[in-house]
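Changelog note: in this version the structure field was regenerated for every chain. One regenerated record is shown below for reference.
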Amino acid sequence: MRLAPSLLAADLADLAGALDLCEKGGADLVHFDVMDGHFVPNLSFGIPVLKAVRARTRLALDVHLMVANPDRLLDDYLAAGASRVIVHWEAAPHLDRLLERIRKGGAEAGVAINPATPVELLVDVLPRLDFVLVMSVNPGFGGQAFLPHALDKARRLRRMIEISGVHIEIEMDGGIDRDNIARVVSAGVDVCVAGSAIFGAGDPQAILAEMSELRERARQETV
């Protein structure tokens, strides 16, 4: 199990400080949300910000493209330092082609699915994926409440992966905090994204350390 704090919830005037917190607090990845104002209503980080973040951390960058026409921006985000790139099933009619481009660009390839999108739609693309991001909120806004039915989706996806015989991680993003992370891990999730739960806390470093401990405890209980 790996933990990926989301920079979307950090102090945007001190991203360097947020990255330092992630490294000292035991994070495994840094989640980097890209919003275009079309696929989702908000705007967030662009390519220059990703370049700056890449230069300030040793952690892998988990780049979540919540954008329409992700093929238009993909190569630029790869060049800017993305370690993993996530495109949305709902925004990618030519998903096979995009996943191939991500891998050829030297990054791990992932696909995200919105809360109303069934995991079963991914059955034919599983062999081309390194990971799947299950959204546990509707994308576009931080601080939303966790949608419990995402846990069942994760369990169904885990069964699909086991049947396929391929090695694919399950990532989950949205409303994960210290109160539900154990249930998320128990549902078969390998990577937990957490934003407001960490950076919105009075002591973000203490919360990150606590979530890391809860994550490890839950992992041991599922072995």
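Spot check on this record: The beta strands are 2-5, 29-35, 60-66, 84-88, 108-113, 131-135, 169-173, 191-194. The mean pLDDT is 94.
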